[in-house]
Design a protein that fits this description.
The protein is mostly helical. The protein has one domain (8-120): Arc Repressor Mutant, subunit A (Orthogonal Bundle), CATH 1.10.10.10. 65% of the residues lie in helices and 7% in strands. The chain is built from 6 helices and 2 strands; from the N terminus they run H-H-H-H-E-E-H-H. The chain starts with 7 loop residues before the first helix and ends in an 8-residue tail after the last helix.
């Protein structure tokens, strides 16, 4: 690593942090949080997820998912339905009020995409996307190949 070049890990971390901040700001304009948006997007893509499955997908504790689902349910956007095979499990489904929010989210995401990719042509965007997918695949493979021996607190 050279001191005159941007550090890969710092840039990647800062970009992710700033994209989360931008998404939080955009979600706030619609009276929501980024976490609520993320849940709605996952439930649109995969209706009927359990709270446990959703917590694993978005990598937060199940209690955090439960609290966010409580808020979404109170606003009429999500409903919990009993799992027909296991009465201990609740399946999550979108309700009609979430549809307009999802539409607004698509517009916000398109605008964020334009902001993030400004000055890049389609080939560059595809190359960056492919590179990030490869990096993610490499990291996931490493995590699977070498299980954690001891967690650091």
């Amino acid at each position: 690593m050279s001191d005159d070049k941007p550090d890969f890990f710092f840039v990647l971390h800062d970009l992710a942090r700033q994209m989360r901040a931008l998404a939080n700001r955009r979600a706030g304009l619609h009276g929501m949080t980024r976490a609520q948006w993320v849940m709605l997007i996952w439930l649109e893509r995969q209706p009927g997820l359990s709270q446990k499955e959703l917590s694993e997908l978005i990598e937060v504790e199940p209690i955090t998912v439960a609290r966010i689902v409580d808020r979404l349910e109170a606003n009429g956007m999500v409903e919990r339905r009993a799992d027909p095979a296991d009465r201990r499990i609740w399946r999550l489904h979108l309700c009609p009020p979430s549809w307009s929010i999802l539409s607004e989210m698509r517009h916000e995401r398109a605008d964020m995409y334009e902001i993030a990719t400004a000055g890049l042509d389609e080939d560059e965007i595809q190359a960056v996307t492919a590179a990030l997918c490869r990096i993610k695949s490499n990291v996931v493979a490493e995590l699977r190949a070498r299980p954690v021996e001891k967690e650091i607190a």
